[in-house]
Amino acid sequence: MTALTLTRAPGRRWSLPLAWAVLAPILVAAAAPELLAAVSPIATDPVNALLPPGAGHWFGTDQLGRDLFTRVVHGARPSLLLGLGATVLAVAAGALLGLAAALGGRAADQVVTRVLDILLSLPQLLLALLVITVLGGGVANVVLAIAVAFTPGYARIVRAEALVVRRSGYVEAAKGLGLGRPALIARHILPNAVGPLLVLATVGFGTALIAGSGLSFLGFGVQPPDPEWGAMLAEGRDFLATAWWIGLFPGAAITATVIAVNVLGRAAQRRFTRRTS
User: InterPro entries under this entry (predicted)?
Assistant: First the structure.
């Protein structure tokens, strides 16, 4: 056990700084892309189309002569907002459904649990596609579709945590002191039931980002010529043999972001587990 800990420690020691080193410029690109790339991401230059990466164009140019570095930088904001918006909605909806199932009585628990079981039986991406089929494409509908697909998992976690917290000693003591049900939920049950969910949502954000990019790749999200990593991947699939860089760099941005977020999320999860244990 000691040897295993010693072999893992150096990797964990360097993983967090590396994750922040990767994520920091991506966050800057999302918050203020003009600081990193002042050129318009939709400006075309057919004379310089399909140029490979070089000094003039760090990531090369696409089939319309647009600078790929600029497009990757400006594509960070819509790509991250797709994942972030879907995660926030899923966490909020999951918390409400989980609390309703745990605290609403046996009938409410049975109804909510059965609905969640049905939704969880479907792959998340397939469920998101079903929602988009009903609602149609567009950025708002993509965010809503991903949120619907991710809500059941969060709801099950909140339900399980709320059931444990509801039977805990300090909640029973608060009841004995005459604390009302709304105050009991707000002060004791909600914070302790949702706490683990917020940590898991950090990891879930990476999955939501992949789902958002995948739906944009299929043409349901951000539409050309606006830059978004998934949509840029879709544009590059027709040039893999002749201009590999068009698809490489958006894909690398998605991969790097997801790995960095997962590393930070896992670290937060380990810290939360140690604190609660």
Answer: BP-dependent_transpt_permease, MetI-like, MetI-like_sf
Decide if 2 is inside a domain: no
* Tokens coding 209: 């980002």
pTM of the model: 0.88
Is residue 195, in this structure, part of any structural domain at all? Answer: yes
Q: Is residue 202 packed enough to be buried (19+ CB in 10 Å), middle (13-18) or exposed (0-12)? A: middle
pLDDT of 101 reads 92
Instruction: Give me the pLDDT at residue 161, please.
Output: 87
Task: For residue 22, give both structure tokens.
Answer: 């990767």
CA distance 46 to 61: 10
Q: Tokens 């579709």 label which residue?
A: 145
Answer whether residue 269 is part of any domain.
Answer: yes
3-state secondary structure 150-201: HHHHHHHHHHHHHHHHHCCHHHHHHHHCCCCHHHHHHHHHHHHHHHHHHHHH
| Helix (H) / strand (E) containing 62 | none
Which segment of 53-57, 93-97, 181-185, 220-224 scores lowest on mean pLDDT?
Answer: 181-185
Q: Does any domain span residue 48? A: no
Domain count, the chain: 1
